[in-house]
Amino acid sequence: MSSMSYQWQKTLILILFLTVPVGLLLVFSIYPACYLLYLSFTSWDGTSVVKEWIGWANYRQIFMDPVFFRTFSHNFSYFIFGFVQIALALYLAVILNGKIRAGNFFKSVIFLPYIINSTVIGFMFLYVFKSDGGAVNILLNSLGLESWIQDWLSSPSLVNHTMAAIAVWKYTGVTLVIFYGGLKSIPNELYEAANIDGATGFKAFRYITLPSIKSLIELSLFLNLSGALGAFEFPFIMTKGGPFGASDTFITKTVDTAFKFQSFGLASALGIVFTILVVVAVTLQQKLIGSKGGEE
Questions:
Q1: pLDDT value, residue 253
Q2: Intra-chain end-to-end CA distance of the chain, in Å
Q3: Superfamily classification of domain 72-212
Q4: Neighbouring residues of 56: CB distance < 8 A, sequence distance ≥ 6
């Protein structure tokens, strides 16, 4: 080692340090992605040894059958409710960033749903939103609001909104933590100077708080879009895509295609298409946010 030049020693150390992470990346990311791409061109049923090559047939079926892309209209509820989640988390973060008693307690309570297993939450809210004897309908009845009683998980027009609202309850806490950390990093001197100039309340929020956490807002918007497109856990646990496919999402449709209909080749193609759609959607959103930021 001593006879090697410093440059060669540095290069060797870099190679040794990179070997493990690059190897893990190849084994657990690159190889599965390439194998998924290969399977998308086959008619594999998930069990047989032979994987018959069928070319672009799976992709033609996806783009010729509107049922696959119709499910994205169900994801739209999660996307819209995601903005409610971001606004609510930001509002709560601003409040908790001030001088408030038992602030740590409230932060813990708001964050708690995020660490609860989604399966537990799904089964819990099945009883909350039951049409007959559910907690929500019982509460509405006791308040004299019988006209508001609904079949929350059996109505095609309400089921996606209901589960999107549950997602807001679960994920508001983690978004709050992101914003709270950003607010804590803003120097108090900025607010003191703004206070001297008469910029208090909403003006301080608009001209100091929002610009300071712009990158965190962009991160939240990215998580909202990717999370809405990838909605899976609650429709899979609570409704199995029902009633009559009204709560199916692209991911639940992909899982059903693979495990219910034993068409792993088609499901692999759906996975590839979904990945491309997410990349395109996120890129467009980032371009839109960037262009608006540039105009400002």
A1: 92
A2: 56
A3: MetI-like (1.10.3720.10)
A4: 41
Note whether 9 and 1 are within 8 A (CB). Answer: yes
Say what the pTM is.
0.86
Give per-residue pLDDT as tens, 179-196. 999 999 888 888 888 888
pLDDT at 3: 57
Structure confidence at residue 142 as a pLDDT band (50, 70, 90) = very high
Cβ atoms of 252 and 75 within 8 Å: the answer is no
Residue 239 burial (C-beta neighbours within 10 Å; 0-12, 13-18, 19+):
buried
110: which residues sit within 8 A by CB, 6+ positions away? 92, 172, 173, 176
Count of positions (residues) in the chain: 296
Q: How far apart are CA 74 and CA 231, in angstroms?
A: 9
Q: Could you tell me the two tokens for 131? A: 């049409």
The DSSP 8-state label assigned to residue 239 in this structure reads I
